[in-house]
């Protein structure tokens, strides 16, 4: 398996996200502040053996020069919030990235397919705590 997304997949992801950071809607230009990067929702270290790891369903366009700046940095610094918004997928949830909704600031909740499509979907059901009545 490849250790990085292919050029084609990166182009597919940027096209799907309209070259905007899915978290803050900033238009992304290569080489310009705040930078652009491709974030792995299911982290590489967690996803070994997962066939979607470098597929479009696991990748989102975010601002930031690396994983410590911009929204890319925010995601890694706020894992709990990022999980709620679908930017991070916990390995033990045992869900494929294509089955986990992701919140795009511009388009709302989306399901991302492995072939680079984004489909509008309902927000994920929050985990209920205790009785609901
Ligand atoms: Zn951003």
Question: Any descriptors?
Answer:
binds zinc ion; 5 strands; alpha+beta; single chain; three-stranded antiparallel sheet; globular; two-stranded antiparallel sheet; HNH endonuclease; 133 residues
What does this structure look like?
The chain has 133 residues and is of the alpha+beta class. The chain has one domain (7-120). The chain is built from three helices and five strands. It has helices spanning 7-16, 70-77, 79-84; strands spanning 36-40, 59-63, 102-104, 108-112, 118-120. Strands 3-4-5 form a three-stranded antiparallel sheet, with no helix packed on it. Strands 1-2 form a two-stranded antiparallel ribbon. The chain is globular. It binds zinc ion. Zinc ion is lined by residues 21, 23-24, 26, 62-63, 70-71.
The major pleated sheet works out as:
3 strands, antiparallel
Question: For the terminal residues, how far apart are their CA atoms?
Answer: 49 Å
Kindly give the count of domains.
Answer: 1
Decide which structural class fits the backbone: alpha+beta
pLDDT < 50 runs, ≥5 residues? none
Helical content stands at 10-25%
Inertia-based shape: globular
- Our estimate of the beta-strand percent is 15-25%
Mean pLDDT: 88
Strand order of the largest sheet: 3-4-5
What ligand species are in this complex? zinc ion
Number of strands: 5
Query: Roughly how many Å is the radius of gyration?
Result: 14 Å
Number of helices: 3
User: H/E series, N to C?
Assistant: HEEHHEEE
